[in-house]
Design a protein that fits this description.
It is a single chain. The protein has 7 helices and 15 strands. The protein is of the alpha/beta class and 284 residues long. 26% of the residues lie in helices and 24% in strands. The chain has one domain (5-259): Carbon-nitrogen hydrolase (Nitrilase/N-carbamoyl-D-aminoacid amidohydrolase, 4-Layer Sandwich), CATH 3.60.110.10. The longest helix is centred in the N-terminal third of the chain and has 17 residues, at 17-33.
């Protein structure tokens, strides 16, 4: 099977949904023209990253944006990890959701962001996704036709348990629509991608919006692809751009064979001692 080429579309995001969809379509076309087989869009590429905007831009699965993204995948004959949009379910809940399409435009998966970004940093930075969003509750793995891939969203990247679940279900590549800010991005973005790739022996591909210093939420950008050895295979800066890199699945298999971390795991030790009946509470 051929090694797939991964394309990341680091696009600017505005308050006009139609313009954002047009930007995404242009970026997908450019990535495919550079040979991409799998294309990834950024987190909340459809609207400004503001909690109060999520209900305004929310759509159900199968809605107009879903249909447009399905059409883009089909027209470009590409597997599309379609960033995230605010998804409205039948009960009025809103999720930060990544829809995934095959090259025929069929929906083959979706990931609802599991870990919501609720933070309060020194300096007065406050952001609480749970003000308007509901968390998802599952890991997401799908067949791209080239390899088995997983998807998580932004803040999910900080929780290694979710990534090990994806690897346990066969993931060789994990795609991350994300939008780290100018505090967390410089400190942790690259570090987390290299670490998650290294400790799970998978390729990692993270796609962020381009930086807009005048916007309400300033993205770090720096969309990135890393290897199972922790190497940076490609990286953008803060500006709009498209990155395309081939991932070598044979190299992944060699790394897993020569440094068999996954085989050397000890689930018997990692299991909760209380569950094994070995835990005793300390005396009062």
């Amino acid at each position: 099977m051929k090694n797939p080429r991964i394309g990341l579309v680091q696009m600017s995001v505005c308050a006009d949904k139609e313009k954002n969809l047009q930007s995404a379509e242009h970026g997908i076309y450019e990535a495919v023209s550079k040979g991409a087989d799998i294309v990834v869009l950024p987190e909340m590429f459809i609207c400004p990253y503001i909690t109060s905007d999520f209900p305004v831009f929310a759509e159900p699965e199968g809605g107009l944006s879903w249909q447009a993204l399905s059409s883009m995948a089909r027209k470009n004959n590409v597997v599309l990890v379609a960033g995230t949009i605010p998804e409205l379910d039948g009960e009025g809940n809103i999720y930060n959701t990544c829809f995934i399409f095959d090259a025929m435009g069929n929906g083959i998966g979706k990931h609802r962001k599991v870990h919501l970004f609720d933070i309060s940093l020194s300096g007065g930075q406050y952001f609480k996704e749970s003000d308007t969003l509901t968390p998802g509750n599952s890991a997401t793995v799908f067949d791209t036709g080239f390899c088995t891939a997983g998807t998580a969203v932004c803040y999910d990247l900080r929780f290694p348990e979710l990534f090990r679940l994806m690897v346990d279900h066969g993931a060789e590549l994990v795609t991350i629509p994300g939008a780290f800010n100018m505090t967390t991005g410089p400190a942790h973005w690259e570090l987390l991608f290299r670490t998650r790739g290294l400790d799970n022996q998978v390729f990692m591909a993270g796609c962020a919006p381009a930086r807009d210093e005048s916007g309400p939420y300033i993205s770090y950008g720096n969309s990135i692809i890393t290897s199972p050895w922790g190497e940076i295979l490609g990286r953008l800066d803060e500006k709009e751009g498209v990155l395309v890199r081939e991932i070598d699945l044979g190299k992944l298999m060699r790394i897993r064979e020569e440094l068999p971390l996954l085989k050397h795991r000890r689930p018997d030790v990692y299991a909760c001692r209380r569950e094994r009946g070995e835990y005793q509470a300390p005396p009062p």
